[in-house]
Every structure is written in structure tokens, then in C-alpha cells.
Amino acid sequence: MTDKIKNKYFEGERILYGVKDTQIEGVTFGHGESPLKEAKNIELKDSIFKWKYPLWYDEKVRVGDCKIFCVRMKDSLI
């Protein structure tokens, strides 16, 4: 891994779109779909996802101690 993102808060759609070779630790992803869409070779630790499709079309992802919260839409649980 060449880059590190630590102890940050992000909001917005595809905020880290296409990120590569990155360690992500202690990060909270608030409102916004697909924050890590098409990411490659990433490692996630102790992070929180509060919206939909957090790892959409990603490759080579390692996940440890992360939380993905359910989203209620139109009386359906996703």
C-alpha cells in the first residue's frame, strides 16, 4: 500500500472513486452512494459506512472491524 487515509470523515457520492493501493483506517463515510466505487487493492480497518453500496465494483479489498449500517427506503430494509 502506498497511500494512507486515517481518522477522516467523508460525505458525498463516490468521494474516493477509483482510489488504489491505499490503507483506510478510522474513516467514517456519511451520506453518499458508492464512496469507494471501483477502488483497487485497498485495506479497510475500523471504518464506518452509513450509506449504500460502499464497495461497489471494487477489486482486492481487505476489510477488518468495519461497520455497514442498514438504510431504510420506502419501507424496505436494504
Structure notes:
With 78 residues, this protein is mostly beta strands. The protein contains no helices and 10 strands. The strands form 3 sheets. Strands 1-3-5-7 form a 4-stranded parallel sheet, with no helix packed on it. A 4-stranded parallel sheet has the order 2-4-6-8, with no helix packed on it. Strands 9-10 form a two-stranded antiparallel sheet. The model has no long low-confidence stretch (mean pLDDT 90). Pfam families: DUF3737.
Brief overview:
The protein is mostly beta strands and 78 residues long. 0% of the residues lie in helices and 44% in strands. A hairpin with a 2-residue loop joins β9 (72-73) and β10.
Annotate the secondary structure layout.
Elements: E1 3-6, E2 9-10, E3 20-25, E4 28-29, E5 40-45, E6 48-49, E7 59-64, E8 67-68, E9 72-73, E10 76-77
Parallel strand pairs: 1-3, 2-4, 3-5, 4-6, 5-7, 6-8
Antiparallel strand pairs: 9-10
